[in-house]
Specification:
Chain lengths: ~425, ~375
Amino acid sequence: MKRYARIAGLALVAALAVPAAAFGQYPPPSKPTPQKAPKGPFHTLQVCKDGCRYKTIQAAVNKARPGDTVKVRSGVYRETVSIAGASKRYIKLVGNPKDPSKVVIDGSRGKAVPRQNGVWVNGANQVTINGFTARHYNGNGFYVVNVTGYKLTHLKATLGGVYGIYAFNSIGGEMSDSEASYNNDGGFYIGQTPPQSTPKRSLVTRVKSFGNVIGFSGTNMRYVTITKSQWFNNGTGIVPNALDSEKYAPPEQNVIIDNDIFWNNFNYYVGAPFKVRKSGIGVPYPVGVGVLLFGGRHNDVVNNRIYGNYLVGVGALQQILLKQKDAADLIGNSVRNNQFGLNGTDLNGRDMVYDGSGSDNCFAGNAGVQAMLPADGSAFAACPFTGANAYNAAAQAEAFGWAGDATHEKFWIRHPHAPKKGYTPLEHYKK
Amino acid sequence: MPFREPESGLPRRGFLAAGAGVFLCTIGGERVLLRNPGDAAKADAAARRVARPRAAAAGAPGAGPTEKLTFATPQPQPGGTAREYWIQATDALWDIVPTRPRRDEWHGRPVPGPTVYRAFVYQQMTEGFAEPLAPPRMPGPTLYAEVGDTLVVHFRNGLSDETGQALTMHPHGVKYNPEYDGVYLGDFTRAGGFVEPGAEFTYTWEATPDAVGVWPYHDHGPNHTLNTFRGLFGAVIVREKGAKVPDMEAVIFFHSLAPPVTGLERQFQCINGRAFAGNTPTLQAKVGQDVAIHVMGMDSNFHDFHIHGHRWKDPSGTFVDTPAVGPNETITARFIEDNPGRWLYHCHVFTHQDGGMAGWYLVMP
């Protein structure tokens, strides 16, 4: 029985954060290649419903040459915008950076299945998308794949079928000053980063993610810094995880620094503004987690404020279901100098959970820690630490057992939240 | 004495401007003469044409057995620790004479402008390159280690894709294997010897017992002479385990900023990127303090480090007050402070001190 619960718990994680490719027709990932910077002269193509040369964004993109700007005026555009191939490199798609809610692309088609993606970029390097709202897409709001370099900024992605703002199989980019809400998987997602000898880092900064199944999902992602952002009211806050469903496991060399990660207790199973997807094996994902390192190497969780997550503030667990066994262990990760529980006013159910698997993992300088699993703290080696960590099978079984709970709340340890101006805790969605 | 027209073929004005600043760079097979203001652009263009070396040097034309070698990442010795730094190379507008009005305090006279150029500097960042830890500075951050430690330096080339070029970090003194040399070697370049704009590389260097001392680090990419002159340099300090840290410790680079590098009309003789007392670092100490001033040369000239009112022992045990220091060499003036007052420190090569290579040393009783 126990064994079953453990496997089931893991499987549900694996089932959830699958690449969006599974939900639509996409070309297979190809290696991002260098493309020469265009020399110009550059042009600006105007798009609006009335009086512009281009009535749809796609029509302008089709005419745009490398490095051109496509300027989209206020309005609601019901289309899918595809920016594909080297001939569309360095294109800037600009809506209203000051108020992205004025330039909307909408995927809904009445009773028909909504369009798949809002804007998707495939194989066009250094594309900028700036100042748009994408909503009601069956797949993803903003989706970038097979590129070297991208900038996704001043965007809002809401009510999407899978991911809000999403980069896959790409090298180096930026997601900034954006918001993702009520998406049926990761609000933000960077997945399957190709390993590189001189890596190009991706930066996620000044974003807000709330009301999503997962605030930030990072399957097999690399060289990503997540900073100065807010992750709240999601089912789970931030999950760098190792999965077989994508290449290049595990996640490596990511830094989660200086974020607010709070109130990730959105039990979307009870109610949600989106239709909750059935996971492949019908087992739910645990709700109430701030950060979960699910497999991974050299990921650092540093200087964050983590509070009011009812199940776990920061968890670190071995990815025992991974077929690629050499990538299953946690190696060289650290959790340092975080503030848990908002000075005792807004506690996590458990601040830190670690099954003690792997090696060279360490914990240091974390303030406000009141509850841990294992409770005696024996798994939490101080930094720096080299060698095998203190594996704790009972702690691992207990943690994976939480996922088997059909109510998704049974193992919560609820504490009152401190009031936060402009923010309302979301546990059960009400229309 | 009338000024004699030099035989270089330069017009007199050009000679005065460039003076000793003329130099020749070999950049990925191209040779570029840097003689006049603006010539740096030619070198940058050449640097941008340098193709990324093959990732596997083992496959390079003419590769020998040394290229087939692979190297493990060194770990700290027992009791040692890995000291991590996040350092980004970036460009910044840099004022060589930041006082306003621009002034040489030593002689109490104004310094005519302009004095601002686009420098390249190493800037210390928070973990994950999330944000700068400090404003751009010259030299870059001083790296500290004790014997038995490793220095784990996450280096990022923060230059823009469009205008940037490959850069590196190459240290002196500490131990490293070829993987972490940080040097561009044409076809034989390893990954850390060619870090393109936007890319990063983690160097691991060892503080071995014979690494005790103060050493420079600098760019050693395809265009490293120009880029080092622009400001891509800093210092590494390695101490014995548990060694006493001096009460006052300063790192001083003697170097010049010449017209071909800066695009400015005149040549500045600099200390840490600044010229003329009041602009250069003002060092401060108190009587009784253990003072260590580490001086390195970072141009193609030899310098002499002189502090008024002080003397100290050189490594041979001889008392000195004006030791010579060459390119990428270090001398340390270490003494117990015993002489309060306002003192001048400067390079004692006269043309250097007169060109701005001088500063204040203030000692309180």
